[in-house]
Amino acid sequence: MSGSIKDRVAIVGMGCTKFGELWGRGPSDLIIDAVSEAYQDAGVESKDIEAAWVGTLFSGNGGRALSEPLKLQYIPVTRVENACGSGHEAIRGAAYAIAAGIYDVCLAVGFEKLKDEGMSGLPGMENRTNTHYQSSMPGVFAIMATRYFDRYGLSPEEGKTMLAKISVKSHKNGMLNPKAHLRRELTIEQVLNAPLIAWPLGLFDCCGVSDGGSAAVLCRADMAKKFRPDPVYIKSLQISASPTSGRMTSDFDYTHVEEAYRAGIAAYKEAGVKDPRKEVSMAEVHDCFSITEAVTMEDMQFSPRGKVKEDIEAGTFQLDGALPVQPDGGLKCFGHPIGASGIRMIYELYLQLQGRADKRQIKDPKLGLAHNMGNEPYAPVVSVCLVGL
């Protein structure tokens, strides 16, 4: 890797709407609400923004998806889409433009208005190429769970209980977050006895679909303290895209996601992280299903292969554990408005690093990781972002 953005770009303002079934809010409202909070947080106005990026999968086309509601005045605005990593892609575009010396202050926004689609899952996910078998997302990730159980010798009861503890942990954290969609604590028994979606995944192993928006104001690192005394710096932002060979073969592993592992390695290298388990203070990961979080703990090198169950049982990833994961409740409690999720994750890390996370506050965090995975585990695009002080 010939270059790096480590410590060259700072985040000086962020905003995030409440996520949920926001029937009374349109896409423009979500953008305006998130950006207004970010502007106020950074102490800037629209006239201070030199360029902007917006990430969305289904809810807007072209740069005018952002320029129109914000009434941006003839500046460059780029609409990006990279599946579930669309929000991270918006951050990446803004950060790289600043690091390249083209702009001083940029805006990154992610949003999605999904509930008006009238569907219980994600719209537009059908197999248009006819190059692989068709399956639902719960079905594909259920295969990940059963393969993991088999490979590492977990009985169905042991495996389902491991997954249930992940959901219980996230809901406990989400209960503390006023912006979360599903603010309800769960018991292990409730998770285990919930209706099945795709065995072994039950209702409470699956994240929901939500509406939401999130935003960040970024600037050159050397001018960050002109905006605020406690800016957060981007340490790395790496993306790994899949050759999609997994969908063409019958022996795909399923117990790890190579793209996540590779993106993590690249992000750690850029940030100078040698021991992720010890150096990363907290993480927000793409917990579309409870098994995804479990496997991601191993892909991010927080747990050894096949050993995440031990860390879950030890409370390692609890809010008061050695490495808190999903301190805001994760996708499990926020749902997944696709374009908004990546920036929402960074929003939580940003608040935690500044000591502003209220009842969820982690003790003395220094470095946070955000992980997004788009598409199926055998053909994903994965982004990993590290931010810190």
How would you briefly describe this protein structure?
By secondary structure, this protein is an alpha/beta fold. 34% of the residues lie in helices and 17% in strands. It is built from twelve helices and eleven strands.
What's the CATH topology label of the largest domain?
Answer: Peroxisomal Thiolase, Chain A, domain 1
The secondary-structure element order is: EHEHEHEHHHEEEEHHEHHHHEE
Low-pLDDT segments, ≥5 res: none
C-alpha end-to-end distance? 23 Å
The major beta sheet can be summarized as:
9 strands, mixed
User: How much helicity do the residues have?
Assistant: 25-40%
Mean pLDDT: 93
CATH architecture of the largest domain: 3-Layer(aba) Sandwich
Shape field: globular
CATH class of the largest domain: Alpha Beta
- Count the DSSP helices: 12
The side-by-side strand order for the widest beta sheet comes to 3-2-4-7-1-8-11-10-9
Please provide the count of β strands.
11
Rg over CA atoms: 19 Å
CATH superfamily annotation of the largest domain: Thiolase/Chalcone synthase
Q: What count of structural domains?
A: 2
Beta-strand level of the residues, as a percent range? 15-25%
